[in-house]
From TrEMBL:
This is Uncharacterized protein. Transmembrane segments: none annotated. Gene3D superfamilies: 1.20.5.4820, 1.20.58.530, Kinesin motor domain, Myosin VI head, motor domain, U50 subdomain. One of its GO terms (cellular component) is microvillus. Residues 228-250 are annotated as: Actin-binding.
Length: 657
C-alpha cells in the first residue's frame, strides 16, 4: 500500500511540475499522448493479475474495433458509398463476460468478497460455473472435464475464458484475497495525521472520522474496471493512431521468424480486416463546405458565385471538373471521397498557384491602408478641436443620460413624492418608465426571441428568489424541444419516430419542452429518462429502449405545483394530486429550469391552485412519503441521488472547478 501511494504521489507531482500555468494556452493547444498497453499474458499458472491484464487487452481491442473498423464502414454506409462489406469479430461479448455489472465475473468476485462468513475460492468458482455454464466464451474443468484442454491437469480449480487472442485457463486460488482491500481505516488515519507533509498528502482518505466511514472500500477488480472504463471514454474522444508490435519468436533470438506465432498474432489483432477496410476505402475524405472553402479559388470562372457559399455537391463538382478529376472522386451525402493521393496533390498545387495573385492584391490593400491611416492621423488634430468645442455643450445632457445609459435606469432610486397630489403622477411616470424600459430591452433582443420575452417576464414573477434566472435565462434563447435538435440528441431519428407514434396515439398538438434527465423512481433509485412536456401530458421515455414510454404519462391536469432550488441546480419537482411527485434532474450545461417553469406556468395559467415554490431545500412526496432533498457538491463524476436517514435524500453533484 505504501508503494502504491508513493507511486501515485510521484506521478501527480511530475504532472504538476510539467503543467503550464497559462490555461488559455492549454485550451487552444493540441496534445499528443502515448499509451503503452499491457501485453497479452498466458502463463502455465494464470491468476487474478493475468485476468486483469488480459481484460485490459480485450477492452482496448474492443475500442480498436469501434474506432477503426466499425466507424470506417459506418461512415461509408451513412454516406451511401457503394463498397464491399468486410466482416470482423466484435469481442464485446467477452468484455461483458468479465465487466458487466451484477452478472459479470468481476461482479460475482465482488459479491463473494462482501458475503459475511467463510467464503472460499471454490465457492466463487461454483457460482460463476452456474452463471456462465451456457456462455460460448466460458468453460471450466467442472463443466467439461473431458475436454482436451484439461489434459494433464489434475486440479479442478480452473476456469477458462476464450479471449480474442486465444484460450486462457485461470486458477481461482487467491482470487478473493487479491481482490479485497485489507488495509484498515485506522492505519489510513494514522498516516494522514503524520507530521511529514508528503506522507500525510498520500493518505487523504484518512481525513474522515470513524463515524463518517460507512462504506466498504472498493475492491481491486472494481477499481481496475472503473479505470478501464474511464480510459476507454478518454480514448474515444481522441483520434488514436495504433502501432502494432508483432513478436517474431518466444526465444528472443534475432532473424528467427515463427510463422505460426506471427500468423496467430496478425489474426487476433485484426490486422487483416483493417487492411481490407483501408484497401477498399479512400485516401482522403472531406465535407463539402470545407472542400469548397479551401479549393474554390481554383475555379476562377465561378469564384464569384460562392464567395461564402453555396457549399454543396454542385459547387464541388464544378471544381473537380475544372481539374478533370471527376473520375477519381465519389460524391457522398455530405462528403467528397478522393481515391488516389495524386488527385489530392493536384488540388493543392492548383490552389497554391491561385494564391499568388491574391497575395499581391492583399499587399496592395495593406499599403493603401497604411497611407490612409497616416492621412487620418494628420487630420486628427482638427477633428479633436471640433469635438472639444462640442464637449462642453453636451456635458449637461450626458450627465442626465448617464442614469439611463448601460442598464436603462435599472439602479435609479425614484424620488419620493413631496405631496399626496403627486402620488398619482409619480406612479404613472413609473409605469411609463417600466414600459419604456421593457420596450428598449425588447429592441435589443433578436426578432426570434421577442415572442418569448413576455413569457420570460411572467416567469420572473415565479422565480424572484432564483437569482440565476435574471442573470442567464432572461437573455437566453428558449428552444423548448431540445431533443429535436441534433446537437442535443445524437439519436434524433429514434426520438422522432417515437414522438410520431405518440402523437398518433394520444392526439396532442405539439411538444413544448424536452430534455434528458435523471429521474427518481418510487424506490429512491435513479433512472435515465427523456422528459417530454406536451400540451396534454408529460411523458417519461426510456432513451435506452428507443424512447419507449415508461408507465402511464402524467396529465397536466394532475399537476398542482412545482418546486425548484434557489441556486443553479437543474432539479425540478412536479407536485401531483396523487401525492406521488415526479422528481428529476435535467442533464444540461445550460440553466433551463426557468424555461420549464415558464412553459408549465403558461399551460396552467387558468388554474387557480398552481404555484411555484423556490427553496434551498426542496420537499417532495414519493409513494405518499414525504422527503427533503439536500444539495451536496462532491468529487463525483456524475449526478447521483442518495437516500439518507430521517427521510432525507441527497442530490450529489460534481464539484465545480
Amino acid at each position: 500500500a505504501l508503494y502504491e501511494r508513493l507511486f501515485e504521489w510521484l506521478i501527480k507531482y511530475i504532472n504538476k511540475t510539467l503543467s503550464q500555468d497559462d490555461n488559455k494556452r492549454i485550451e487552444n493547444s493540441r496534445i499528443i499522448g502515448v499509451l503503452d498497453i499491457y501485453g497479452f499474458e498466458v502463463f502455465e499458472n494464470n491468476s487474478f493479475e493475468q485476468l486483469c491484464i488480459n481484460y485490459c487487452n480485450e477492452k482496448l481491442q474492443q475500442l480498436f474495433i469501434e474506432l477503426v473498423l466499425k466507424q470506417e464502414q459506418d461512415e461509408y454506409e451513412s454516406e451511401n458509398i457503394t463498397w464491399q462489406h468486410i466482416d470482423y469479430f466484435n469481442n464485446k461479448i467477452i468484455c461483458d463476460l468479465i465487466e458487466q455489472p451484477r452478472i459479470g465475473i468481476f461482479a460475482y468476485l465482488d459479491e463473494a468478497c462482501q458475503i459475511v462468513g467463510t467464503v472460499t475460492d471454490d465457492m466463487f468458482l461454483k457460482s460463476i460455473n452456474t452463471a456462465f455454464k451456457n456462455h460460448n466464451h466460458y468453460s471450466s474443468w467442472n463443466l467439461t472435464p473431458g475436454d482436451k484442454i484439461w489434459k494433464n491437469i489434475d486440479t479442478n480449480k480452473l476456469f477458462l475464458v476464450r479471449h480474442y487472442a486465444g484460450d486462457v485457463a485461470y486458477s481461482v486460488d487467491g482470487f478473493l484475497d487479491k481482490n479485497r482491500d485489507t488495509l484498515f481505516d485506522d492505519f489510513k488515519r494514522l498516516l494522514f495525521n503524520s507530521k511529514n507533509a508528503i506522507l500525510s498528502s498520500m493518505w487523504p482518505d484518512g481525513e474522515k472520522s470513524i463515524t463518517a466511514v460507512t462504506r466498504r472500500p472498493l475492491t481491486a477488480a472494481t477499481i481496475f474496471r472503473n479505470s478501464m472504463i474511464n480510459l476507454s471514454n478518454l480514448l474515444s474522444s481522441k483520434q488514436p493512431f495504433y502501432i502494432r508490435c508483432i513478436k517474431p519468436n518466444d526465444e528472443k533470438s534475432p532473424n528467427v521468424f515463427d510463422l505460426t506465432r506471427i500468423q496467430h498474432q496478425i489474426g487476433y489483432l485484426g490486422l487483416l480486416e483493417n487492411v481490407r477496410v483501408r484497401r477498399a476505402g479512400f485516401c482522403h475524405r472531406v465535407p463539402y463546405d470545407r472542400f469548397v472553402q479551401r479549393y474554390k479559388i481554383i475555379d476562377c470562372v465561378r469564384a464569384n458565385l460562392y464567395p461564402n457559399g453555396p457549399f454543396n455537391k454542385e459547387s464541388v463538382a464544378y471544381i473537380c471538373m475544372e481539374l478533370d478529376i471527376s473520375n477519381d472522386v465519389v460524391y457522398g451525402n455530405t462528403k467528397l471521397f478522393i481515391r488516389k493521393p495524386i488527385s489530392l496533390f493536384q488540388l493543392e498545387k492548383k490552389r497554391t498557384e491561385g494564391l499568388q495573385p491574391i497575395i499581391t492584391m492583399l499587399q496592395a490593400h495593406l499599403r493603401s491602408s497604411i497611407q490612409y491611416r497616416k492621412f487620418r492621423r494628420e487630420n486628427s488634430a482638427i477633428k479633436i478641436q471640433n469635438y472639444y468645442r462640442r464637449y462642453r455643450i453636451r456635458t449637461y445632457i450626458n450627465q442626465i443620460n448617464e442614469l439611463f445609459n448601460k442598464h436603462l435606469g435599472k439602479n435609479i432610486i425614484w424620488p419620493k413624492p413631496s405631496s399626496r397630489s403627486l402620488k398619482t403622477i409619480h406612479n404613472l411616470f413609473k409605469q411609463i418608465y417600466q414600459r419604456w424600459r421593457i420596450y428598449k430591452i425588447q429592441q435589443q433582443l433578436p426578432i426570434e426571441q421577442r415572442a418569448t420575452f413576455e413569457l420570460k417576464l411572467q416567469t420572473g414573477k415565479y422565480l424572484q428568489q432564483r437569482s440565476s434566472f435574471f442573470d442567464i435565462n432572461i437573455y437566453q434563447e428558449w428552444k423548448g424541444d431540445y431533443l429535436n435538435l441534433l446537437e442535443e440528441n445524437p439519436r434524433l431519428n429514434e426520438y422522432k419516430k417515437s414522438i410520431n407514434e405518440l402523437r398518433t396515439k394520444d392526439k396532442f398538438d405539439k411538444i413544448i419542452f424536452s430534455t434528458y434527465a435523471i429521474k427518481l423512481n418510487s424506490h429512491i433509485k435513479m433512472d435515465e429518462r427523456a422528459i417530454v412536456l406536451t400540451d396534454k401530458c408529460i411523458y417519461k421515455l426510456d432513451q435506452k429502449k428507443h424512447f419507449h414510454v415508461k408507465k402511464t404519462p402524467i396529465p397536466v391536469d394532475e399537476i398542482i405545483g412545482l418546486s425548484v432550488t434557489s441556486g443553479k441546480e437543474q432539479l425540478i419537482v412536479i407536485h401531483l394530486m396523487s401525492k406521488h411527485d415526479l422528481v428529476f434532474y435535467m442533464l444540461t450545461k445550460m440553466d433551463r429550469v426557468g424555461e420549464f417553469v415558464g412553459y408549465m406556468a403558461k399551460i396552467k395559467e387558468k388554474s387557480t391552485d398552481f404555484s411555484v415554490d423556490v427553496q434551498r431545500y426542496v420537499s417532495t412526496n414519493i409513494s405518499k412519503h414525504q422527503y427533503v432533498i439536500n444539495i451536496i457538491w462532491d468529487h463525483v463524476s456524475k449526478v447521483e441521488f442518495r437516500k439518507g436517514s430521517n427521510n432525507n435524500i441527497s442530490l450529489v453533484l460534481p464539484e465545480e472547478r
